Amino acid sequence: MSTPHLKNSFSWADALFLYVERPGQPLSMACVCIFEGKISLKACRDLVTSKLPLVPRYRQRVVFPPLNLGLPHWEFDPSFDIRNHIRQVRLRGGTESDLKELASNIVSTHLDRQRPLWDITLVQGLEGNRTAMIARIHHCLADGISGLGILNVLMDTSPTPKPVPHVIVEATKTPRLDPGAALLDNLLKAYNSAVKGALTLQSEALRIAEGMLSNGGESLTEMMSIMPELAAPADRLPFNVVCHGPQKFGWTEIPMNEVQAIRERCGGTVNDVILTVTAAALRRYSELRGIRVKGRSARIMIPVNVRGNGDTAELGNRISFLPVTIPLDVRDPQKLFAFVRQRTEYLKHVRAAELVGFTGGLFAVLPPPFWAAVGPVASQLPLSLCNIICTNVPGPQVPLYMLGRKVVAWYPYVPIGGEMGTNWAVLSYDGKAYFGFTCDIGAVPDPENLEKFVDASFAELRNSASRAKVQAKTKDSQTAGRRSRLSLRRRKAKRRIPLGKALASAGTKRKRPLRKSKAKAESAGTIARTPAPRRPIARVTPSVPSSLQQPASPSASSEVAPEAVVLEHLAQAVGA
Fold first, then answer.
1. DSSP assignment of 68-133, as one string?
2. Residue scoring higher pLDDT (446 or 206)
3. Cβ atoms within 10 Å, residue 184
């Protein structure tokens, strides 16, 4: 990962994470990696030091302009010391519960703004002869996608450790401007940032308009139809309270091959599977907290990467959000999955993420002093724009190693804020999808229940998808059987003699008595060739008054007339 053109100025999106941060609400991303074997503190420090030339931002700190007139900027920390950023802790019990408690305590604290905004805690004493690493980075430095790219700098795909070169980090000083020149420089940067934001907003509006016009105005109508839904506040759920800290961190994992199997059986995407499991788990947790879910829904914000080149090495925040509102009273897993799939496809079709990004860009035109003053207060207002944020980051599907030690688990952590008392992160790595639950202790004091409900919801969806596949096979076999029986009836029908031909031939040749069921004869109107069983045909002689009887002709006593034969066939055809 190289940064040949390192920009020292903040973007508005990056600075916003600094403005809205407040006590009890640290806005840092983190992850917990578990390695096989032991990793020493010295080896870890040497490795990170050798990688610092690839990520010079890790040696820079934030500098705010006087009176917040302009956006913050980065400058090299003149007193940078790797020992301030990489430390070691030993667990007493060594259990996974102990590791979760330690990670919760670390993510509940704020990073020191006088230093580069990252740190690593190496955890020794984990049972099973394993080592854990808790890595933190402030959200102003990177989002989930670029943060993953930075961690990949420390790891490789080879189990054989490579020699770590000895690197000496020299102090780098940034030239200081006199106060007058610094103030003028900050004003110019603020003006340039405002102009750039306005131009970006205009280009986004033009791009959205072009996309809508390309569909003959249909997209405009559809986009306007979802505006009331996006503007309406989300239903309040038990965990939608103002966050005051501290935070608790929980995690679980599910197999990616089973996730892929559900996707292949039911269609949709991996993200649809994750969203279905998330909605079902939220329903279970809401019911646990005594909430009736009938008629309620959960609005889940999904971060969307808007990097045009897809480069995960690009620092900063380049994301938008896709708001997906999912009903909580749909208990059938297949119906819930079908709703999620259709809803996400529709929101992508109407460019909902672009609309949300455009709306967020409107706030960028407000001056930095406004956000510096209002940001900490705004994060405590009772605004229910969504219930939770659930980010799904695709990670490497091959094993990674650091210093020759394999990464056997990788649990992600995303910050919480405002009235989102819990946020979820999902990272797919090496055949598993790792869930990380960030919880405010006042909103969700029991993340272990979230872990249990995700496991139960996924098992329910997996079993339902498996039954759906079996039912589909049974239905196909039944359909094939019906087609086979229909084909047999059609072949039999081809061998039948039409009634007209039977009548035409009846006057010349007497055929053997034939039998056919009354219902089939009436519907088909044909006489089957199959001869009837040899049994006497009961003839009914109608009773005629003697006054109306006529003497029979001499020939009638010795020969049957052709008309009588026809009448006999007709009597048999109608079941007489």
1. G-S--EEEE-TT--GGGTEEEEE-SS--HHHHHHHHHHHHTSPPPTTS-SEEEEEEEEETTTEEEE
2. 446
3. 13
